[in-house]
Amino acid sequence: MKHIVKILSLLVAISAFWIGLLQAAIVPRSHTWLLPIYFVVSLGCYGLLMVGVGLMQFPTCPQEAVLLQMDITEAKEFFRHKGVDVGSD
Amino acid sequence: MADEKENIGDKKYKYSIIIPTYNERLNIAIIVYLIFKHLRDVDFEIIVVDDGSPDGTQDIVKQLQQLYGEDRILLRARAKKLGLGTAYIHGLKYATGDFVVIMDADLSHHPKYLPSFIKKQLETDASIVTGTRYVKDGGVHGWNLMRKLTSRGANVLAQTLLWPGVSDLTGSFRLYKKLVLEDVISSCVSKGYVFQMEMIVRASRKGYQIEEVPITFVDRVFGTSKLGGSEIVEYLKGLVYLLLTT
């Protein structure tokens, strides 16, 4: 099935649960009404947390730039010997 | 190291490497050199799809053909800039390998990772092996904080909305089984990097086995990476499109 259908089903299931909670009144209704807001805000915070954590742990590789320059030099030398004119950048 | 090469050399598979180019006169020569350096015992062909570069890219490719052989380097040019997706489709028509590798010509994708792609595929029989920059042994060089933030934000959003099953959605350094690439590419309609996302998401939806290998990505040293407002809008539109149609 299409992905959007999966997501909508999930939302419908969550909504049904929420409506069930409202009707059953296990939790005071005033709290239950605010649950969707809590849910959305939590989701937003989780997203921001993931972005922050990911940013802090963002893998970098400065040594790769150096290695690349060495490879470029090696390649240019090779082509110089073979008479292929690669010119300059 | 020697063991790995022997393993790869054992199998009798052929790999077609499609490289779309536009004004990559110097880089294409270096890429070709590095591919030959790192795939010593592998049967492969390089298919250069050049979109009528005015800087003489095709002349260089012809010289490389003289050096390495026209059976190893295929020049399949087009008249003008026609886009990445169609460049792959064009290149695919001439591919005679069992597997197809797509990679960029600007040296952001380093051929030294090709053996790890091949090895991963042989080990897992995956339909697609995609390079990921965002894991521990991978990485990016040349991005400032803003660029990293945008990338990370975009990734979190895409993961939340699409559940794609891969960590790097916009990456374009990938190995496909040829038949899988043909199948997936025929159902993709997007352009640019949204195209790369569409490819991997559609493949995931179709149930193809996708494995990842870490790669390092050195962004263009000359000129800055373009990521302006319009790119962000395109990205968001692409996400919504993928959310609704895959």
Question: Topology, please?
Answer:
The complex is a heterodimer of chains A (89) and B (246).
Chain A: H1 3-24, H2 29-56, H3 62-82
Chain B: H1 2-10, E1 14-21, H2 25-38, E2 43-50, H3 57-68, E3 73-75, H4 84-94, E4 99-102, H5 114-124, E5 128-132, E6 139-141, H6 145-162, E7 174-177, H7 178-185, H8 192-205, E8 210-214, E9 216-218, H9 229-245
Parallel strand pairs in B: 1-2, 1-4, 2-3, 5-8, 6-9
Antiparallel strand pairs in B: 4-7, 5-7
Helix pairs in contact in B: 1-5, 2-3, 6-9, 8-9
Keywords (chain A): Endoplasmic reticulum, Glycosyltransferase, Membrane, Transferase, Transmembrane, Transmembrane helix
Membrane topology (chain A): Multi-pass membrane protein
Subunit structure (chain A): Component of the dolichol-phosphate mannose (DPM) synthase complex.
Report on this structure.
The complex is a heterodimer of chains A (89) and B (246). The radius of gyration of chain A is 28 Å and the shape is elongated. By secondary structure, chain A is mainly alpha-helical. Chain A has helices at 3-24, 29-56, 62-82. Chain A contains 3 helices and no strands. Chain B has 246 residues and is an alpha/beta fold. In chain B, β2, α3 and β3 form a beta-alpha-beta unit. In chain B, α1 (2-10) crosses α5 (114-124) and α2 (25-38) runs parallel beside α3. Chain B: Component of the dolichol-phosphate mannose (DPM) synthase complex. Chain B: InterPro entries: DPM1-like, Glyco_trans_2-like, Nucleotide-diphossugar_trans.
